[in-house]
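Attaching the record inline, Q. Sequence:
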Amino acid sequence: MNSLIGTYECKADTKGRLMLPAALKKQLAPVLQNGFVLKRAVFQPCLELYPMAEWETLMQKVNSLNRFKKKNNDFIRRFTAGVKMVEVDASGRLLIPKDLTIFANISKNVVVSSAINIVEIWDKDKYEQAIDDATVDFADLAEEVMGQDEEGDGIS
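Structure, as predicted:
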C-alpha cells in the first residue's frame, strides 16, 4: 500500500459510527475488504487504524520479542490493550467501539489524519491542541529527525 495522504474533519454519530471521508475511502479501497485493526495510540490520546496487512507486518516485529523478558511482556500487553478488529460497512462507516471512544474522548467532531501507512482518529479539539503544542518544537524536531548529515540518516 502506498502512503496515505490527507487530514479530514468529519462527525461521529451517537453510536460511535464514523463516515470515512470519500477521499480517504478511495485511497483505502484496495484494502477495504481485508478489514482493519483499531487501537489506542501509544503517545497521544487518539486511535490508530491499521489496514490488516500493516498490522500483520507490525505484529511480526512484536512477535520477535523475547517473551521471557518481563519488559517485553509488559510492552506487548499494553500495546495490544483494547485492540479491536473493525470493518467499514456498506455505507462507508466505521464503528468505533465504546471503550476506544472513551479513551480518545471522541464525541461528535472528529479529525481523521493520515500517518503514512495508518490513519489516526482524533477528537477535533484534542487534535488541534496536539498540533498547537507540537508547533513550538517542530523546527527542532524536524532538524533532529530528518536533518542528519551522516550517510543513511535523514532524508537528504
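The mean pLDDT is 88. DSSP finds five helices and eight strands in the chain.

More tomorrow.
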